[in-house]
Amino acid sequence: MKSILLSFIALITIILTASLFMVFSGTFNVSSNWEDPPLLEWLLVETRENSVKKRAKSIKEQGRITGEQSQLNNGFRSYREMCANCHSSPGQAKSPIAVGLNPTPPDLTKKRDHEMSASELFWVIKYGIRMTGMPAWGQTHKDGEIWDIVAFLKILPDLKSTDYLDLDRTLEAGHGHSGVSDHHINTTKQAHEGHNSHHDAVPHSH
Q: In this model, does residue 138 exceed pLDDT 50?
């Protein structure tokens, strides 16, 4: 029993010594160009995903995504100004910011990178994820504005590049931290109704 205890103490001592060496020697490479070994990458991804799932369980998403045109338009404006640089827009190449980030931000225009539930997306957008470059937008945006973004994200993978570009031309810049007024939405819609294009708003998902 004594030998087992001594072996355990020795193991803990070795681990602590190695950890302190890594901290103070500068051996650990913090460069964004450094690729994590497969085991470390798996540990980080699993830890992150399970952490998000656990905390998002308490978020009630029922009734939050209305699918109304104003919500989708507001969500598009916010995505364009806050998210597209890192998470891409349909048919566009990755931005220099997205290329330089580690871990690589998910391409939210692709279904394969879009596996989170609405409540999980809300949690990530509101609280952010440390050491990934994902900010906590809840510091500056109300819950309703974040749900607008979630609503848009849910239809984003189905948007064609032409749809997205038409929206970019049509909807004025500025998402506003207090929401976009109905007057602004109506003015935008009326102006676009006179446009020859049939892509006058974010298409609803079916």
A: yes
Structural domains in the chain plus CATH codes: 55-193 (1.10.760)
Mean pLDDT of the chain: 86
pTM exceeding the 0.85 threshold for the entire prediction:
no
Residue 103 burial by Cβ neighbours in a 10 Å radius (0-12, 13-18, 19+): middle
The answer to whether the beta carbons of residues 47 and 129 sit under 8 Å apart is no
Euclidean distance between CA atoms 47 and 129, whole angstroms: 11
pLDDT > 70 fraction of the chain, expressed in percent and rounded: 84
User: In angstroms, rounded to a whole number, what is the distance separating the alpha carbons of residues 151 and 144?
Assistant: 11
Buried b (16+ CB within 10 A) or exposed e, 161-196: eebbbbbeebbeeebeeebbeeebbeebbeebeeee
Q: Compute φ and ψ for 184, nearest 5 degrees.
A: -65, -40
Split at pLDDT 50, 70, 90, the class of 3 is confident
